Amino acid sequence: MKRLPLTPDVAVIGAGPVGCITALAFAYSGYSVVILEAQPKSAKRLAGEWLHPPAVKILQHFGAWSNLQALEHTTGLGFVVFPDDGTEPIKLNYPDELVGFSCEHNKLVSALQETADDHPSIQLILGAKVIDIEGQKLTFLDIKHQQSQTISVECIVGADGRSSFARKTLNISNHYSLVSYMAGVLLEDVELPFESFGHVFLGGPGPALIYRIGSRQVRMCLDVPIDSQKKASYLWDAYSQVLPKSLLPAFRQALQNSKIAWAANQFSSRTHYGRHGLALVGDATGHFHPMTATGMTTGFLDGECLVRSQSFEAYRRDRKIHTYVPEMLATSLHEVFSRDDDSAVAIRKGIYQMWRQNPTYCVSTMRLLSGAETNLLFFGKSFIKGVALAIVYVINDTVSKRQWQHGTKVLQSFGQWLRSPAASLVRRTLH
Fold it and tell me: Which of 18, 107, 152, 272 could form a disulfide with 299 if both were Cys (CB 3.0 to 4.6 A apart)?
């Protein structure tokens, strides 16, 4: 075992993917780093498994790519959306022939922990629970031996997720809203309609995201409304009707074997990033709906930005600016794809039309979705275009059916779709 320096430069709390990448970013910049992880080993749970191209680039830059390539994994070429109106699926490729990556979460964690621990400037301590932070002094407990140790460091990084101890130390209230639940189902020995792509099936109570994580395994993530029953029978009745027939036998088998992992989809705006000497990264800063699969990619970019920033204030300012668009995209797409009111249906039709008629918007969507593009005006242009097409659809439908009162009511509801992003931006600016 490597000896822990008496005064390491950096202490990272949490050895998940974001914590490991943040530690590697510091180590590659010449810092000595200790990673403290309360869990003695990686636990199986429903968590991030898809990495967009910007995250792959970071993995390559910080020496983690070779370990990940040795895993059973899948190269991600983009996403395919299966509309709820029964029309042909729409393929959204990553631009410039870039690729993503997907594999089982605990295997991803183990590989990144191995990469971090192999670096000569990093020591990974598993079973080390942080119990106190005072200034730049950090005390952790060796859970196995029930012994505590206090170290002083220049920088403490909270990469310890939604229930972050570092965040609590900063007295940051943990306000969040429950958006929906996610049911994770593992399918075995099936072939996807578009291999190497993530699949988004619409038409159920919520969107279904399906992607391969190994040669024999496919992950199915079903977005379940809050007031729904968390039972296998409900999942079958609600989602089997929108899935390809080729997947149904494996889906039924998985449900009969109770291979369901549940997680809460929560929203907490990314407005808090810590203080000088105690920075937050990843879900510790806030989190949003996982439908766009941007959680780990955003967290990797947090860690990379923290290390290259000249000051904590520069880091905080940069991430507040560049995480607004991923947050709003995830929130807006989930609402558009899960709501069944007339305005949401119209916006979905507008988006389908936009993607089918102009390939430029397909590229724009994937640049936004992957985190490669975070410009607010870029997002606004695409969002307003979709709403505008939806308004045209409603007007034409109203005229053809002569349902003037109903059409007027639907048109008025579009104001809320435009006000929500603006209100969110104001809230982030005020913090």
Answer: 18
Tens-place pLDDT, residues 139-163:
999 998 899 999 999 999 999 999 9
Residue with tokens 């947090």: 302
Cβ within 8 Å of residue 24, ≥6 positions away: 62, 63, 64, 115, 116, 119, 122
Say which residues have a Cβ less than 8 Å from residue 178's Cβ, sequence separation at least 6.
226, 264, 265, 266
Spatial distance between the Cα atoms of 129 and 126, rounded to a whole number of angstroms: 9
Question: Contact at 8 Å (CB) between 221 and 209?
Answer: yes
Q: Are 166 and 280 in contact (CB under 8 A)?
A: yes
Map 367-383 to HEC letters.
HHHHCCCCCHHHHHHHH
Give the Cβ contact number of residue 365 at 10 Å: 24
pLDDT in tens, 163-212: 999 999 999 877 789 999 999 999 999 999 999 999 999 999 999 999 99
The span from the CA of 292 to the CA of 316, in Å, is 23
> For 321-340, what is the mean pLDDT?
87
Structure tokens given for 95: 């631009």
Q: Residues 6 or more apart from 96 whose CB is under 8 A from it?
A: none
pTM of the model: 0.89
Domain ranges of the chain: 324-430
Distances in whole angstroms, Cα of residue 130 to Cα of each of 159, 160, 310: 12, 10, 27
Q: Distance between CA 365 and CA 92 in Å, rounded? A: 8
CA 375 from chain center: how many Å? 18
CA atoms of 201 and 226, how far apart (whole Å): 19
- The mean predicted confidence, pLDDT, of the chain is 88
Q: Average of pLDDT values for 120-124?
A: 95
Q: What angle do CA 85, 341, 364 make, to 5 degrees?
A: 60
Give the pLDDT confidence of 359-398 residue by residue, as tens digits: 888 898 898 888 888 876 666 667 666 666 666 665 666 6
CA distance 428 to 431: 5
- Please provide the size of the chain in residues: 431
What CA–CA distances, in Å, run from 246 to 190, 375, 410? 8, 40, 38
Dihedral-angle region of residue 231 (phi above 0 means left; psi in -120 to 50 means alpha; beta otherwise): beta
The separation between CA 387 and the C-alpha centre of its own chain, rounded to angstroms, equals: 25
